[in-house]
Amino acid sequence: MFNRDRWDEILQxxxxxKFRTFLTAFGVFWGxxxxxxxxxxxxxxxxxxxxxxxxxxxNSMFMWTQGxxxxxxxxxxxxxxxxxxxxxxxxxxxxxxLKYVSPRNQLGGFxxxxxxxxxxxxxxxxxxxxxxxxxxxxxxxxxxxRFISYSDINSKRKVCVLGxxxxxxxxxxxxxxxGTYIKVNGVNFLVVxxxxxxxxxxxxxxxxxxxxPFTTFGQAFNRGDRVGWMAITSNDDVSVTSLKPKILExxxxxxxxxxxxxxxxxxxxxxxxxxxxxxxxxxLSFVGYFVGALVLMSGIIGISNIMLIVVKERTKxxxxxxxLGASPWTIKSQVLQxxxxxxxxxxxxxxSFAAGVIWVLNYILxxxxxxxxxxxxxxxxxxxxxxxxxxxxxxxxxxxxxxNSATKMKPVDALRIE
Length: 418
Known about the structure:
The protein is of the alpha+beta class. The chain has 3 domains: 4-53 and 275-416, no CATH class; 67-97 and 235-263, no CATH class; 104-232, no CATH class. It is 55% helix and 17% strand. Strands 1, 3, 4, 5, 6, 7, 8, 9, 10, 11, 13 and 14 form a 12-stranded mixed sheet that branches. Helix 2 (18-51) packs antiparallel against helix 10 (270-313), helix 2 packs across helix 12 (328-368) and helix 12 (328-368) runs antiparallel to helix 13. The radius of gyration is 34 Å and the shape is elongated. 33% of the residues are buried. Pfam families: FtsX, MacB_PCD. InterPro entries: ABC3_permease_C, MacB_PCD, Macrolide_Exporter_MacB. It comes from Lacinutrix iliipiscaria. This is ABC transporter permease.
């Protein structure tokens, strides 16, 4: 039941020495502020780093061929070889746990420059030969038209899908790209769609990309059924990392590569890297909680010490109240309430202040553009609820020792103290 007299008495006790109360509350304010800000900054760093993975399915790996380093079955070391389309079918047949196996070929990018021409305008862009399922591995927003289809693959249609920056470079503002033709290395292609990256880690690179059917790419640029590299994604319930040894074993056997030649086939395990990054930030979050809790604990100790002093100063008052019939629980509950009120108010102010700092950080990021490896610092409601729970528990613990001290005194002894 709400007792106004009790709360007036508590507020009077807390405001009797305002400067001392302020310094005591500041410890809790600063501790909870540090805790929330550390977790928000850790989350911002995590958002920035994981954005580098782009929107690509994280349960994926990439695989490409390199020179052999060991002789095998009469074949010399240093031999170069290429993946073939039949390798894709082998992987799909032998490993049903694989969701997508996308063969890819590329011009431009790290393979060197290429010329793309439309009328009097030209540019150098990354050109990819892909299968339709690649859009499920790396989602993108189709702005106009469509992505490549299996009908394009089977008919080897000379069609392409342009990134937004390709459109800006080759077309006038407001000009419709659909149904027009561009020339890639002297070969004409019909534009059937335009796209932009969907929350990708490298939006600029994606925007300067052109996709076309894999089979058309092979025919137009004399690649035949050769595969430059593969993007492999496993089913959601199976880690691609666990399948990687079998995948590499199958490819070595298909191309007569020594079973122990680990350098002949290059690979990058996106799933493993993503899990490693997540593990790192789990540790950083724990460190944030730990450091914040230590700072908060110092504030709680300060409150406990001040409450001990307050109880000492009010010894005679406590003796009078006990002599008038106040129960030990009444005395104890008042001390606990004072401690809890001081802790919660200072803690809530700290949470509000931290929220303001986080808002300012996000506002600055929105105004000045993205920062490398840092984006959208924030905390979830779970963190706020945990912080409130910490405050309540801390407030009770801070007042427990002074409250017990207050109830242990006998009324007669308390009245004798000057």
